[in-house]
Amino acid sequence: MDIQSIIGELITLLIMALALGMDAFSVGLGMGLIKLRLRQIFYIGVTIGVFHIWMPLVGMLIGRLLTDTFGTIATLLGGGLLILLGIQMVFSSFKKDDEPLITPVGFGLIVFALSVSLDSFSVGLSLGIYGAKTFLTVAIFGIVSMVLTWLGLLVGKRVQNWLGSYSEALGGAILLAFGIKLLLPF
């Protein structure tokens, strides 16, 4: 394999990782609108990075054995989870208590990370069928999504101070819109 094909493959994987990581950035932007400490932001980014490693890895392994039938199912599940999280955030913003039902901590963090990484599972299925380099692919996907998640959360945290009490409703609306976008092709 010559140097041009290696560079071409790296650029292709980086562009794919950026595309997959943009949903993590968008959802991170929405989740950053709730009150989070920097330590939580760090753990959220690492968790989403790990999910963006193992979800495409599982997808690639299955993709080498199966067709891409499961890609649509993964997209539908991810969209549904984001819609549920978005609705929950919007409703909890109108309640008197300050604690949302699902927060990006513990089980809520797993649900959050799963919802933004399900699309990387379907991409992993396709790449598994194609025969992409497994380690390189999942490493790039994980690193890029982790960095983009951190950026989204930090921008959301900054914007949250400007929006005050409306920030959680806006964050929920962003998650809801992104979930609908995953479910409806427009």
UniProtKB/TrEMBL annotation:
- Main location, first listed in the record: membrane
Pfam families reported in the protein's UniProt record: Mntp (PF02659)
Keywords attached to this entry? Cell membrane, Ion transport, Manganese, Membrane, Transmembrane, Transmembrane helix, Transport
- Output the Gene Ontology cellular-component terms: plasma membrane
Membrane-spanning intervals of the chain? 6-29, 41-63, 69-94, 106-129, 135-156, 163-184
Gene Ontology molecular function: any one: manganese ion transmembrane transporter activity
Q: InterPro entries, from UniProt?
A: Mntp/YtaF, Put_MntP
Q: Does the keyword Transport apply?
A: yes
HAMAP family in the cross-refs: MntP_pump (MF_01521)
What's this protein's family per the entry? Belongs to the MntP (TC 9.B.29) family.
What is the name of the protein in this document? Putative manganese efflux pump MntP
